[in-house]
Amino acid sequence: MNKAKIFRIATWSAVAVAAGILIGLKGILPNAELQEHVSTGTARVGGPFDLTSQTGEKFNNARLAGKPYLVFFGFTNCPAFARPRSTS
Description:
Low-confidence stretches: none
Order of helices and strands: HEE
Strand content: 5-15%
Radius of gyration: 26 Å
Largest sheet: 2 strands, antiparallel
Organism: Aminobacter niigataensis
Transmembrane segments: 6-25
Family: Belongs to the SCO1/2 family.
Oligomer: single chain
InterPro entries: SCO1/SenC (IPR003782), Thioredoxin-like_sf (IPR036249)
Protein name: Cytochrome oxidase Cu insertion factor (SCO1/SenC/PrrC family)
Mean pLDDT: 75
Structural class: alpha+beta
Number of strands: 2
């Protein structure tokens, strides 16, 4: 490698490191804008449920009392029965 190429690589590396440091410092500087937490209330979805596992074991919302949870009903791979889910 010639000296000019090494100099270019070193210069661009220094610029990238300096940019990364400046971007990182932007979040901790005193005049950085703080995002205010805005609550939109509580969700009014869901409710009690009773399910049966693949082994026949009963499962309901009482087993998850006091813990946050999310239930999604969907297939991970079923090309013969369902069309692909849209990402839009």
